[in-house]
Here is the input.
Amino acid sequence: MADKLHFSLVSPERELFSGLVDQVDAPGTEGDFGVLAGHAPFMATLREGRVVVRNDGRETLYEVKGGFADVTASGLTILAEQAAAVSA
Here is the structure.
């Protein structure tokens, strides 16, 4: 089994997601990026767009409007100015 990434998505109202996933793709202001377990640490600002959470062959989508992404040794945290789940 491949390593999992701990991911948290937080909006001002509540935490929308917290758990172990395979990959997260996010809309950075300097370009979209993907994060897997073991990624090098970095911080990025986010633009409006979709965060795609990939886990066990499934995708979960969230619409975000601004915020920050913080990748550390313990995982990825997105602090979104606004965020909502997208219905499939």
Notes: The first strand starts at residue 5 and ends at 10. The chain is about 0% helix and 65% strand.
